[in-house]
Every structure is written in structure tokens, then in C-alpha cells.
Amino acid sequence: MLGHPVDGREQLRGIQVAQSDVGAYALLKERTRQDGLRLSTDSLSEQLRLHLHRGISLLAGDTSLRDISSLPMRAVSQNAEQSQHS
User: Fold this and answer.
1) From CA 21, how far away is CA 1, in angstroms rounded?
2) In sequence order, what are the residues at sequence separation of 6 or more whose Cβ sits closer than 8 angstroms to the Cβ of residue 31?
3) End-to-end CA distance of the chain
4) Contact present, 17 and 9 (Cβ < 8 Å)
5) CB neighbours of residue 10 within 10 Å
6) How far apart are CA 74 and CA 82, in angstroms?
7) How far is it, in rounded angstroms, from Cα 34 to Cα 39?
8) What is the torsion angle, in degrees rounded to the nearest 10, for the CA atoms of residue 69, residue 12, residue 31 and residue 35?
9) pLDDT per residue over 1-50, tens digit each?
10) Contacts of 5 (CB under 8 A, 6+ apart)
């Protein structure tokens, strides 16, 4: 186990990973491993930070988003589109 367990959670350099986030944590570990990086607390924390920055940059470049309240409608419309295509 990486980090320090705190009340059933694992600490990743100040970020608590709850048991309910185990899937996302596993994906982060797998991506880090595929990138050829060590599975250390520091490398996982850095990869999570980079992932968040990529997502924020992607959203910042979307001109249809005028403010944070636009995010839920964007998610709903994307889910509806995906449902129609499957």
C-alpha cells in the first residue's frame, strides 16, 4: 500500500483516496505503470496533478462553457449523445 492509511483511506501526498475511489486509483496506477514510471507516492501524486491539469486545460478551451454552472448541462448532453449512438 502506498502512502499512509487514514480511516480506511490512503494518503497520496495530501490527497485522500477513499475506498469508493478504488477504480480511479487503479486506473491512475495502471497509467503510471504503462508510462514506465515507478509506483511511488510521489510519481502517483504527480501523475494525478498532471491529469487534472490536462482536464482543466481541455475545459478552459471549450468556448461553449461560459461558467462552472454550464458543466452539468454539458455532461448531460454528452451522455444523451452517447446513448443515441449505442
Assistant:
1) 15
2) 47, 51
3) 38
4) yes
5) 20
6) 12
7) 10
8) 120
9) 344 444 444 555 556 666 567 788 888 899 999 999 999 888 988 898 89
10) 11
